């Protein structure tokens, strides 16, 4: 193996790494390794000065391989690859050692952590010596986009894209656009009508000449890769169905959420007690302008119960984020509908984090809403009231603010049901090849720095399909996703990662073991030559064929046997 | 001091490596014995890697991938799932204790689970003691 | 057993002056700054919570309102403008109404007009009564004292004693009800007679010194209140025992000096209070219920006419003196007859009693097993 | 005589098949004899170790060593030959990878002695004699070669210039190799000669399709279609992971490849690779079912490493 000039850069990440790992020691051991020209530590390697230092060293000392021992490569690999590029060497001559997430943040014994950091860095050094120069390829980027879901989020994304000049296919499963927001009366905290909000949006979408709306439709397949997807959509016409197919460059998944099924909660008597209803059923009443009990009487007492299906071990542990403000909205809508009506608001915590929310809470309390706090694992219990009582039901609560066990009179109980992932989220995830978290929400490529992209290039997620969100957040994400897509389609071409599998033709014996292994059918077999080959644009570099090839004829670029062997030797040296 | 095993961990980029990062960002502390090597998918993991690690002095090898059905490449982890029993069989025939090699499913959201797996595996390998491979190969040399 | 919430109570209390209680979100600042809030009497937060939830029975049984002197610090510290001080004041009014068996006090508090009419009515009746009585027994408007005095001191003296007796009965009845609500009916207490006697000292002590009030950071309200209190006491003693000497034509300095001091005290403090309520200078003056006004006005009228008729008599203008005396009585009678048992003035009995009971209760509670004791709530609203 | 090639042929731990394979070159061997002096060939030519020891270093042009290194004698001669010869050729799969004798590495020396000398039906009971390096016989000490704890491939003991795979190597390949030496047209040191880079399938006439396996069969369990890939038919065939050069003899005659030519060029561990490939195409996503299907591969390790345990990464058993 030819000699290399390796530069090793150990990041202290402020104190994040330095407080546990003895960075100087790592540098010392690194600099003793053959081929190491320079080894340095720095406070923040990812900062501009940090990168400039690397660039300078590459130029001045003619480094041709770089190891950065810092945070997870999932965080900053692109950053440092760019640095190498600026310095004029191939970006793939970089290898990172993850000594933060997988070392300094998870260990406290300084000596042991330092030893591990040394090993990881050594592994990276041995590996990088085997790196080969790789070139990114670029392919045509189809400007058209596919938006799945015709709710407030999907429509916004579609409009943004269409206004940007791209053709958009908007696919909606239902017969009408609008999604969940269309089921809502007023919106919190400014109490303006959701109906007005939606109708204007829907008309704009339907009239837009670059948006082609497909209602009663579902995407049945999505083939290809970023910039070159082929989508197949099935549309139901009464009892017949038609199939349309079109090419798109990017996809926005805005499939939204479904409300928690209150009948899963036994103790609130939903379905048994006639006057226990869900928030969405109440929205129906409000939209109809008739707040009433089952028997048509006007309720004198209304109780709102928060966190139904949310923030509990048995159902969902997360907070659905919109219910608190919705409950306050009900309190105020009820007061204006039936001034004589008393509203009790039974919550675990009042989450009023958003813009204008605290004021909204204040208005709620000024409207004489009786706020009562129950314990997370000590839910209220509803029972039918006796003949003597002036109410239909009684809710027993261990009220935390007073420490009293109280019972609240109620004629109408509204269960603030949370949000959950749609049943078909798994199918959608498979369709567009993205992953889901334990609750079924789609996973973003980075929760903080890249919240609308996914691990599959060209697939974006926006709105409540990724996690519970209110309208402003969903709209913001919709526009963000659209923005990302517009920014990429402007160039007309798209760079494809240089990491993929390739077949060394004269080593391939044509045994065809690999053919079956590729999930993207990226391997084609040439019957005349009796050889298999990889269509690099389709390849996603999983390496199944590489490990599967019995004659070592397939190499995974940037994950070659040699590179991995070297890393194994390194971490164990 | 007690024996501290060296364990090589092959983690898939999308679930388990991310899960390990999550353990980091959540500051979940665990045993420092695992040296992680990132592969794009468990499907890339060739039994050769495991044997290589053992001959190079690893006392154990941990393989982590997405849960079946959640693979980023939709089916990659099934390839590993199929190779694993055969690999274990071969290692057994070479007289290597089964507990030294382990396949676990760890998703991107299971930082805690990753920590638990590492702790548990480290403990088991610690109980087994050092891997015989390296020392035996050196003895062989001495014999001649 | 769960206690039934009554969301309507908060509306009822509004009439008594508690207008902002619903704004409270239980941060507990009020109870933290209050110099009087200490285990087992945590307030204003707890009473406010009970009020929000409409736990009427608990409120009726609570002594906390009487332990509060309305220095107003809680209201100043409250981040939500929930006016805890005023809420405590309103609770005192509400409790006064609850203690009163006759329901009169409830009427007064619920409508200032009714009280005003009652006062006016009583005043006119008094005037009519005395004038008729004087005329019938042939008293001369031109003579203030002597054999045919228009309103001879000795008869007024008798009248005073009768009135005092009646008032005492009324007031004591209400005090007994207070005891029953706050102490008697509470089965968890085992307060022996011995304990009641042991703590009895508190009653006169607080009644006379107002020493608790001195614990407030602001001293002035306490001073004012003390002066008013003592002046009134002096005046009461003079009138009940030395009326003859007071209205005698010769000045007896050993007696009159007290009269003058008391008068100055009464006039000064009432003027100060009125001024305060008009300018809303102090938090405790910020909100004025009708009953507050009526009380002060009566007080100042009585004090003023009291000294005025004395001066006129000294000046030898007996006729004028008699007229003013009538007006004086027109103030005194309703003030005593209505304010003492049924309205604001009743607190002169309820507050010391409250403190007395609270001491007894604290000991009694300490003696009963833990689980029966009231829990101390320190929960605060968690802001998400 | 100096212009003639000086050749030595030796057998270590082997079966003699390699020597026979030389004779299989038929009259070609006479041509060899014409151009070369065979200085040592225990199976065919008379010669003593002392003659070998007497030679000058590098006196030989070619030493073809077949068989593995099992004992001290094998190693001693291997070292001698290395010293005396310009070219050291590992002849056949045993010298190249350890071969069939190498399978002994999956058990232990003690077990072997036990089976061979103690618990063997064909031996006289009770005398319990196992070979000793030294034994006293009426006053004198006899010594035997030391039986090593394990088997080694030739290259583990001495520096080898070329490797000629095969069990045994095919005559055509042998000729080609010898001719190359004669002509002096030698590939770079360390090359595998007399074989190709690619795997067997390329030269296998059977048609191949995409592979998915629901059930494995032993060769005798199915009447395999002669024209399609045996592996597709569930018959375990090592061809996919084996270097081509044999002329596809076994599959052509209906027998699955056993892998005697060793791994394809660039593959580190033949058995591991074979395992990886075979398992990958098992047609199931259910752990139990997978186990079940793989259970159709009895002694897979023995099969996958039939010719190469000492050449594998793990090299030997570690059972205590």
Strand count, sense and barrel status of the largest sheet of chain C are: none
Strand order of the largest sheet of chain B: 2-1-3-4
Question: In CATH, what is the class of chain B?
Answer: Alpha Beta
* Helical residues, percent of chain B: 40-55%
Kindly estimate the percentage of residues of chain B that lie in beta strands according to DSSP.
15-25%
Question: How much strand of chain C?
Answer: under 5%
Rounded Rg of chain C = 23 Å
Order of helices and strands of chain C: EHHHHHHHHHHHHHHHHHH
List keywords for this structure.
heterotetramer; A: 573 residues; alpha/beta; Rossmann fold; FAD/NAD(P)-binding domain; five-stranded parallel sheet; 14 helices; 29% helix; D: alpha/beta; 3 domains; two-stranded antiparallel ribbon; 12 helices; 30% helix
Describe the protein's architecture and organization.
The complex is a heterotetramer of chains A (573), B (144), C (384) and D (320). With 573 residues, chain A is an alpha/beta fold. Helix content of chain A is 29%, strand content 25%. Chain A is built from 14 helices and 30 strands. In chain A, strand 18, helix 10 and strand 19 form a beta-alpha-beta unit. The radius of gyration of chain A is 29 Å and the shape is globular. The model of chain A has no long low-confidence stretch (mean pLDDT 94). Chain C has two domains: 91 residues, Alpha-helical ferredoxin (Fumarate Reductase Iron-sulfur Protein, Chain B, domain 2), CATH 1.10.1060.10; 257 residues, no CATH class. Chain C is built from 18 helices and one strand. The longest helix of chain C has 32 residues. Helix content of chain D is 30%, strand content 14%. Chain D has twelve helices and nine strands. The longest helix of chain D is centred in the first third of the chain and has 13 residues. Chain D is globular, with a radius of gyration of 22 Å. Classes of the chains: A alpha/beta (573), B alpha/beta (144), C mainly alpha (384), D alpha/beta (320). Chains in contact: A-B, A-C, A-D, B-D. Chains A and B meet through helix 4, helix 5, helix 13 and helix 14 of A and helix 1, strand 2, helix 2 and helix 3 of B.
């Amino acid at each position: 193996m030819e000699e290399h000039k390796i530069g090793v850069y150990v990041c202290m990440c402020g104190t994040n790494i330095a407080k546990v790992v003895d960075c100087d020691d790592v540098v010392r051991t690194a600099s003793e390794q053959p081929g190491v020209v320079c080894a340095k530590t720095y406070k923040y390697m990812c900062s501009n000065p940090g990168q400039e230092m690397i660039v300078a060293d590459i130029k001045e000392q003619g480094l041709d391989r770089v190891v950065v021992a810092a945070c997870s490569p999932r965080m900053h690999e692109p950053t440092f690859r760019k640095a190498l590029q600026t310095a004029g060497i191939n970006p793939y001559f970089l290898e990172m050692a993850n000594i933060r997430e997988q070392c300094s943040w998870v260990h406290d014994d300084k000596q042991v952590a330092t030893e591990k950091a040394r090993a990881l860095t050594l592994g990276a050094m041995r590996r990088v010596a085997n790196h080969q120069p790789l070139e990114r390829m670029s392919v045509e980027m189809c400007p058209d986009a596919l938006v799945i879901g015709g709710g407030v989020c999907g429509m916004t994304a579609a409009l943004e894209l269409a206004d940007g000049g791209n053709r958009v296919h908007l696919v909606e499963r239902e017969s009408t656009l609008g999604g969940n927001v269309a089921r809502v009366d007023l919106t919190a905290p400014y109490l303006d009508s959701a109906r007005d909000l939606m109708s204007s949006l829907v008309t704009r979408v339907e009239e837009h000449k670059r948006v082609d709306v497909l209602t009663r439709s579902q995407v049945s397949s999505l083939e290809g890769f970023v910039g070159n997807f082929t989508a197949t959509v099935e549309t139901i016409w009464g009892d017949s169905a038609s199939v349309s197919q079109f090419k798109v460059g990017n996809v926005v998944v805005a499939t939204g959420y479904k409300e928690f099924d209150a009948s899963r909660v036994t103790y609130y008597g939903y379905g048994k007690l006639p006057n226990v209803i869900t928030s969405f059923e109440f929205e129906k009443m409000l939209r109809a302008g008739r707040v009433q009990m089952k028997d048509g009487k006007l309720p004198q007492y209304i109780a709102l119960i928060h966190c139904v299906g949310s923030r509990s071990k048995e159902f969902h542990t997360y907070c659905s984020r919109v219910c608190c403000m919705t409950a306050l909205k009900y309190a105020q809508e009820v007061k204006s509908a039936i001034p004589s009506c008393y509203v009790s608001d039974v919550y675990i915590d009042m989450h009023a984090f958003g813009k204008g929310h605290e004021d909204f809470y204040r208005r709620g309390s000024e409207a004489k809403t009786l706020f009562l706090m129950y314990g997370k694992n000590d839910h209220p219990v509803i029972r039918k009231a006796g003949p003597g009582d002036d109410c239909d039901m009684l809710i027993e609560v261990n009220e935390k603010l007073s420490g009293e066990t109280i019972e609240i009179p109620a004629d109408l109980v509204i269960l603030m049901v949370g949000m959950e992932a749609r049943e078909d989220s798994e199918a959608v995830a498979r369709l567009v090849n993205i992953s889901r978290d334990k609750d079924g929400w789609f996973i973003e490529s980075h929760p903080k720095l890249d919240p609308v992209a996914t691990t599959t290039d060209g697939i974006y997620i926006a709105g409540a399909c990724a996690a519970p969100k209110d309208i402003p957040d969903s709209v913001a994400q919709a526009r963000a996703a659209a923005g990302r897509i517009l920014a990429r389609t402007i160039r007309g071409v798209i760079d494809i990662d240089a990491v993929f599998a390739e077949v060394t033709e004269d080593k391939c014996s044509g045994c065809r073991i690999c053919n079956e292994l590729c999930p993207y059918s990226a391997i084609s077999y040439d019957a005349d030559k009796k050889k298999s080959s990889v269509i690099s644009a389709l390849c996603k570099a999983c390496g199944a064929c590489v490990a599967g090839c019995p004659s070592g004829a397939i190499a995974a670029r940037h994950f070659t046997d040699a590179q991995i062997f070297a890393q194994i030797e390194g971490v164990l040296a | 001091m007690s024996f501290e095993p060296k364990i090589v961990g092959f983690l898939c980029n999308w679930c388990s490596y991310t899960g390990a990062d999550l353990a980091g960002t959540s500051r979940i502390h665990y045993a420092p014995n695992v040296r992680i090597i990132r592969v794009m998918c468990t499907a890339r993991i060739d039994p050769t890697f495991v044997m290589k690690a053992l001959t190079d002095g690893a006392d154990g090898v941990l393989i982590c991938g997405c849960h079946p059905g959640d693979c980023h490449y939709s089916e990659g982890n099934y390839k590993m799932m199929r190779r694993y029993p055969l690999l274990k069989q071969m290692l057994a025939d070479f007289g290597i204790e089964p507990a030294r090699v382990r396949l676990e499913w760890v998703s991107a959201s299971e930082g805690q689970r990753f920590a638990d797996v590492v702790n548990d595996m480290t403990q088991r390998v610690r109980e087994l003691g050092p891997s015989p491979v390296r020392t035996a190969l050196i003895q062989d040399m001495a014999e001649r | 057993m769960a206690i039934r919430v009554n969301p309507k109570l908060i509306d009822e209390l509004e009439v008594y002056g508690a207008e902002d209680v619903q704004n409270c979100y239980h941060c507990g600042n009020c109870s933290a700054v209050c110099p009087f809030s200490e285990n087992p009497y945590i307030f204003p937060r707890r009473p406010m919570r009970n009020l929000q939830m409409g736990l009427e029975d608990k409120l009726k049984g609570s002594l906390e309102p009487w332990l509060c002197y309305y220095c107003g610090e809680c209201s100043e510290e409250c981040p939500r403008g929930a006016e805890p001080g005023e809420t405590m004041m309103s609770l005192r009014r509400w409790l006064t109404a609850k203690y009163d068996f006759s329901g009169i006090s409830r009427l007064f508090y619920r409508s200032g007009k009714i009280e005003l009419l009652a006062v006016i009515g009583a005043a006119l009746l008094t005037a009519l009564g005395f004038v008729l009585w004087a005329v019938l027994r042939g008293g001369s408007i031109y003579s203030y004292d002597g054999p045919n005095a228009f309103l001879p001191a000795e008869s007024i003296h008798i009248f005073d004693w009768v009135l005092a007796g009646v008032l005492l009965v009324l007031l004591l009845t209400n005090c007994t009800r207070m005891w029953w609500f706050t102490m008697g009916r509470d089965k968890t207490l085992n307060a022996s007679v011995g304990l009641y006697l042991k703590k009895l000292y508190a009653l006169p002590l607080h009644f006379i010194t107002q020493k608790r009030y001195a614990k407030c950071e602001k001293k002035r309200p306490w001073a004012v209140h003390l002066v008013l209190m003592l002046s009134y006491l002096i005046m009461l003693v003079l009138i009940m025992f030395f009326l003859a000497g007071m209205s005698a034509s010769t000045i007896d300095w050993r007696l009159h000096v007290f009269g003058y001091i008391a008068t100055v005290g009464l006039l000064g403090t009432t003027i100060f209070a009125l001024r305060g309520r008009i300018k809303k200078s102090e938090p405790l003056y910020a909100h004025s219920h009708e009953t507050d006004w009526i009380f002060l006005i009566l007080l100042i009228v009585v004090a003023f006419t009291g000294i005025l008729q004395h001066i006129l008599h000294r000046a030898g203008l007996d006729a004028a003196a008699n007229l003013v005396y009538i007006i004086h009585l027109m103030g005194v009678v309703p003030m005593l007859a209505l304010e003492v048992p049924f309205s604001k003035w009743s607190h002169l009995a309820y507050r010391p009693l409250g403190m007395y009971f609270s001491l007894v209760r604290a000991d009694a509670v300490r003696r009963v097993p833990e689980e029966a004791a009231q829990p101390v709530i320190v929960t605060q609203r968690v802001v998400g | 005589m100096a212009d003639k090639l000086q050749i030595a042929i030796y057998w270590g731990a082997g079966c003699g098949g390699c020597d026979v394979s030389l004779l299989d070159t038929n009259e070609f061997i006479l041509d060899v004899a014409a151009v070369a002096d065979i200085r040592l060939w225990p199976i065919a030519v008379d010669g003593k170790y002392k003659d070998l020891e007497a030679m000058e270093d590098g006196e030989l042009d070619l030493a073809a060593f077949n068989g593995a290194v099992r004992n001290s004698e094998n190693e001693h001669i291997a070292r001698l030959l290395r010293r005396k010869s310009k070219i050291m050729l590992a002849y056949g799969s045993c010298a190249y990878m350890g071969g069939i004798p190498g399978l002994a590495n999956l058990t232990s020396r003690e077990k072997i002695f036990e089976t061979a000398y103690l618990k063997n039906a064909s031996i006289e009971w009770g005398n319990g004699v196992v070979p000793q390096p030294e034994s006293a016989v009426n006053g004198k000490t006899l010594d035997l070669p030391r039986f090593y704890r394990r088997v080694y491939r030739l290259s583990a003991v001495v520096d080898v210039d070329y490797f000629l795979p095969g069990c045994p190597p095919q005559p055509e390949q042998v000729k080609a190799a010898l001719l190359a030496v004669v002509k002096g047209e030698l590939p770079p040191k360390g090359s595998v000669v007399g074989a190709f880079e690619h795997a067997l399938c390329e030269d296998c006439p059977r048609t191949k399709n995409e592979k998915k396996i629901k059930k494995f069969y032993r060769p005798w369990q199915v009447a395999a279609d002669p024209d399609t890939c045996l592996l597709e038919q569930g018959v375990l065939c090592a061809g996919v992971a084996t270097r081509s050069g044999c002329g596809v003899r076994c599959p052509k005659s209906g027998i699955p490849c056993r892998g005697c030519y060793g791994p394809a060029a660039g593959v580190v561990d033949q058995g591991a690779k074979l395992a990886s490939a075979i398992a990958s195409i098992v047609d199931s996503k259910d752990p139990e079912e997978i186990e079940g299907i793989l259970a159709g591969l009895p002694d897979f390790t023995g099969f996958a490493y039939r010719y190469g345990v000492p050449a594998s990464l793990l090299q030997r058993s570690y059972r205590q």
